[in-house]
Amino acid sequence: MTYLMSLLFLIVIGYATFKFIQLLRMMRKEIILPATSEELLAIRKYPQKTVDFPNYDKQKVGIIFYSILLLFVVVMFILGKFILDFDWPLYLLLFLPFSNTQNLLNLFAVVEEGLLIGDRFIAWKKVKSFQFIPIDVNHRFYGYSKEVNDGYELKIKMKIFSTSCIVTSDEVKEKLAGILNNHVC
User: Fold this and answer.
1) Of 105, 123, 130, 159, which is most buried, counting CB atoms within 10 Å of its CB?
2) Burial of 88 (0-12, 13-18, 19+ CB in 10 A)
3) Which helix (DSSP H) or strand (DSSP E) does residue 117 occupy?
């Protein structure tokens, strides 16, 4: 059972590292949206703060934290496997730091190949559907700010997961809807 958990752990860490490197590579591509500062101010990953521009300088803190997190988990695995002789249930605790990593990078961008949202890159072929939900009095984001109250929550659904962001401008909503309609089957 220990070998199975070690293999599962290595697969998950390898996948997380691959997705992080893929995100960093996609951040180098030409950004379609947000292209202007007005578009940047109209998109939020969470209601309290607008997203940061998708380049290495603006995302430096999140990139460093995510890298340190990956390194920490790998070092703990190596220490647990070869020095401390962990039992396999303790490996499950090493997955715990990944439970909220999607919030480390305050990122939303559209590139030619897909979407950059939080800590992941989503290729166009993986997006199944999307919808804009108006933020009204009964919405969970209502009350954070006046801009958010008049905005929309964009829900993007994939095969297994879904993700969302907040759009506070009608112009950016229409532009984003046009881009998503062109690429989503």
Assistant:
1) 105
2) middle
3) strand 114-117
